[in-house]
């Protein structure tokens, strides 16, 4: 339990460009990149392992991000959009990924990047999904390759959320 105590004592320093909603819970060994937004009722609990969230990510309302003690950290790349009420647990998410509303991503899952995960999908433990793919179902499978437009739309969505968070940051500073 000493490891847990050390992680809980870590002080969280956020870049000034990060928005965190007042009722979000951020705890433990957590690193968050520039221009990221953490929305309402989000819980990010890095109490027993680390969590890293890249730049220009958006963690939408009701999401839970956690880890597995001494086994699975959670790592998100840049330009990752996590839809409302998603659950991420001990997984690795590459750059430019959109996780649909209510998606569940379990221990040891790896998304290589440029992925779209359909709403409500369940990605079972230990699965690896290749770049440029649409992933859907329960258990989730690769449905098809993504078009160049779909891949650029994923990044555009993340950029749009960086604009939304600017509105909220400006409200906090008035």
UniProtKB/TrEMBL annotation:
<dbReference type="InterPro" id="IPR047324">
    <property type="entry name" value="LbH_gamma_CA-like"/>
</dbReference>
<protein>
    <submittedName>
        <fullName>Gamma carbonic anhydrase family protein</fullName>
    </submittedName>
</protein>
<dbReference type="InterPro" id="IPR050484">
    <property type="entry name" value="Transf_Hexapept/Carb_Anhydrase"/>
</dbReference>
<dbReference type="InterPro" id="IPR011004">
    <property type="entry name" value="Trimer_LpxA-like_sf"/>
</dbReference>
């Amino acid at each position: 339990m000493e490891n847990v105590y050390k992680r809980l004592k870590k002080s969280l320093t956020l870049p000034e460009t990060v928005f965190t909603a007042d009722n979000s819970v951020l705890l433990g060994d957590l690193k968050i990149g520039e221009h990221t937004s953490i929305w309402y009722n989000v819980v990010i609990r890095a109490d027993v392992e680390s969590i890293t969230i890249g730049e220009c990510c958006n963690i939408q309302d009701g999401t839970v991000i956690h880890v597995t003690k001494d086994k699975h950290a959670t790592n998100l790349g840049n330009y990752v959009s996590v839809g409302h009420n998603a659950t991420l647990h001990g997984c690795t998410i590459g750059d430019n990924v959109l996780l649909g509303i209510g998606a569940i991503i379990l221990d040891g899952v790896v998304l290589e990047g440029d992925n779209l995960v359909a709403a409500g999908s369940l990605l079972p433990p230990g699965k690896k999904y290749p770049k440029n793919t649409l992933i859907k179902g329960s258990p989730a499978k690769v449905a098809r390759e993504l078009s160049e437009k779909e891949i650029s739309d994923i990044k555009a969505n993340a950029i749009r959320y960086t604009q939304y968070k600017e509105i909220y940051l400006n409200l906090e500073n008035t």
